[in-house]
Structures are given as structure tokens and as C-alpha cells.
């Protein structure tokens, strides 16, 4: 799974936003430690224009008196094997409301017995475009519209198994054909995304063990992870 995000205001994130032709880049929400239920920026396409929008990183929301709150059902990630299951939380968004989540890196947590290990993964000389889903919610009393989102997770990647054994985030290749198809809200031909539902690391990553996400103090030296399936 992908349980935390690192979004740095640097040239790599700025370049990716330029390449994606995002019209309101100044609204990007940066942060060293973004965790589930936090507000993050997603990239969505509206009337042919790509825009950043603030979204709650938790796809399923519940209505409360004045607004919304995260559902009791965990939904910051959406599993690849649920995307084509009718009535699942991700079924309709996968067909109608796909988005991107831009980040510099991500974090994973692994429990082994009584011990818990935390690792940060930073894309080397690049920024990441995660495949995501979003939903818009309108409050029946106030009329407020709130957006929520999740990041799609694939099966575990062999190179990540020493650090996390449950899943790996969907990292999209940064080419126009894939991105155009992914962000097009009229495109419901999801069969074309079958190859994206396989584990793939499309960047070189620096891997750093840390003491805990909130402090992110390094433990030992960072190591360079170079995936053998490197594609862009």
C-alpha cells in the first residue's frame, strides 16, 4: 500500500506540472508528510483543462451534520483487483473519475512480529505520477461539494519486498498517450489500462529507513534501488 506522501516544491515537481499542462499550479499543496485523511492535490481534467483540485485522501466519506468525515471503511488506497468488481468502491470511479497524484516520494510501513519498520522512497531526479481515483460528494443540507480520492495499489513489486510485502502503488508512465487516456473523463475503455494493473517502478528510487513518519529521522545510509523494469 501507499500510506504517506512526500511532495516537495522542487524543479522536478514543477516540470511535471508543466508537462501535464496544469493551469492552476499555484494551488499545489506541498508537504513533507502527507498521510491518509489529509488534504492533498489531485490532477483532474474538466472541460479539456487540467487542473489541481484539493481532495481528502480517503475515497469513501460519510455525511455529518455540517459536512463530511472519512468513512469507517479504509479507502485511502484502492486495490487493483477491486477495480473491475461491480458495486465495489472503485468500480465507477475507475471508469468515470480517474486522476493523478503528483509526489516526490512515498512511504511504506512493514510489521514483522513485534517490530515495525518505516521506509521512505524518493524518486531520483524526477517526480511521480500516481494513478488515482476521485469522487465528488454534495452535502444534502448545505449543498457543499467535497472531493475525495484514493491511490490505486497493485500487487507487491519484487524489488520492494524487503521493505513492504503487501502491495505497491500504481506509478503511471509519463507519456502523453497514457496520461491523455487516463485523465479523459469520457474514456470508459478501461481494458486499455490492464498493463497498468501490474507492479512497476518507473523511476530510480533512493530508499531510506526512518525512525517514524512524523519525525523522519534517518536510520543508517540511504540505498539506491534501481528497478530492472525501468520504463518511462
From TrEMBL:
One of its GO terms (biological process) is proteolysis. This is Abasic site processing protein. The keyword Lyase applies. It comes from the Bacteria. It is an enzyme of class 3 (hydrolase). Belongs to the SOS response-associated peptidase family. Keywords: Covalent protein-DNA linkage, DNA damage, DNA-binding, Hydrolase, Lyase, Protease. GO terms for molecular function: lyase activity; peptidase activity; single-stranded DNA binding. It comes from Shewanella halifaxensis (strain HAW-EB4). It holds the Pfam family SRAP. Its EC number is 3.4.-.-.
Amino acid at each position: 500500500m501507499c500510506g504517506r506522501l512526500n511532495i516537495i516544491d522542487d524543479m522536478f515537481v514543477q516540470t511535471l506540472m508543466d508537462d501535464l499542462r496544469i493551469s492552476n499550479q499555484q494551488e499545489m499543496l506541498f508537504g513533507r508528510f502527507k498521510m491518509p485523511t489529509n488534504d492533498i492535490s489531485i490532477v483532474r481534467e474538466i472541460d479539456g483543462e487540467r487542473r489541481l483540485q484539493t481532495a481528502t485522501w480517503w475515497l469513501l466519506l460519510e455525511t455529518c451534520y455540517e459536512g463530511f468525515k472519512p468513512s469507517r471503511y479504509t479507502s485511502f488506497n484502492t486495490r487493483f483487483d477491486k477495480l473491475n468488481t461491480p458495486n465495489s468502491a472503485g468500480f465507477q470511479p475507475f471508469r468515470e473519475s480517474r486522476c493523478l497524484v503528483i509526489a516526490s516520494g512515498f512511504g511504506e510501513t512493514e510489521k514483522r512480529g513485534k517490530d515495525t519498520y518505516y521506509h521512505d522512497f524518493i524518486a531520483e531526479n524526477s517526480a511521480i505520477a500516481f494513478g488515482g481515483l476521485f469522487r465528488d460528494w454534495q452535502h444534502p443540507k448545505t449543498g457543499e461539494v467535497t472531493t475525495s480520492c484514493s491511490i490505486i495499489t497493485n500487487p507487491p513489486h519484487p524489488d520492494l519486498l524487503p521493505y513492504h510485502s503487501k502491495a505497491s502503488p500504481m506509478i503511471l508512465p509519463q507519456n502523453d498517450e497514457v496520461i491523455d487516456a487516463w485523465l479523459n473523463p469520457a474514456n470508459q475503455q478501461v481494458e486499455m489500462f490492464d498493463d497498468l494493473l501490474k507492479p512497476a517502478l518507473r523511476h530510480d528510487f533512493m530508499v531510506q529507513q526512518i525512525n517514524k513518519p512524523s519525525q523522519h529521522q534517518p536510520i543508517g545510509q540511504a540505498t539506491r534501488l534501481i528497478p530492472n523494469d525501468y520504463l518511462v
